[in-house]
Amino acid sequence: MTTKSSNVLKMLEEIAAKEVELATEALAKAMKAADEAQGKYDMLLEYRKGYQDNLAANLTKGMTAEAYQNFQNFFKKLDHAIAGQRDVVLIAQQQVKVHRTLWQESQRKKLSYDVLITRSDKRIAKVEQKRDQKLMDEFATRMTRTKR
């Protein structure tokens, strides 16, 4: 019976290990998506700064009202894209948190099974040790009887 429960625990531990592996892969994927989203966001900010610098340079040289209006319209569209990308970054970061929590839970579950397996193995070893000791005692008793 003890070996049957030990086998069940080992099977559950293997399933938990697969869950950890899947959770690790999902977390890595979420982290990569978050990094890519952050990279796009940073790129849009740099792009906006470049156009701001360009506008400042053109303003010092002098520019037409129509050109200035075009810059303003472009900035509105760019700011809208930046806000949208910021939302994408926040969602991606939230996904990382969710997947990190799932990974931690799967790790705890696997470690719990590891602890149970260790306890079970120790219990089995203790039972076997007692049995071996009993056999040795019986053997020693028989040996002393046969010597008399």
From TrEMBL:
Localisation: Cell membrane
Membrane topology: Peripheral membrane protein
GO molecular function: cytoskeletal motor activity
Predominant place of localization: membrane
NCBIfam families in the record: flagell_FliJ
One term under GO cellular component: plasma membrane
UniProt protein name: Flagellar FliJ protein
GO biological process: bacterial-type flagellum organization; bacterial-type flagellum-dependent cell motility; chemotaxis; protein transport
UniProt keyword list: Bacterial flagellum biogenesis, Bacterial flagellum protein export, Cell membrane, Cell projection, Chemotaxis, Cilium, Flagellum, Membrane, Protein transport, Transport
InterPro entries named among the record's database cross-references: Flag_assembly_chemotaxis_eff, Flag_FliJ_proteobac, Flagell_FliJ, FliJ
Record family assignment: Belongs to the FliJ family.
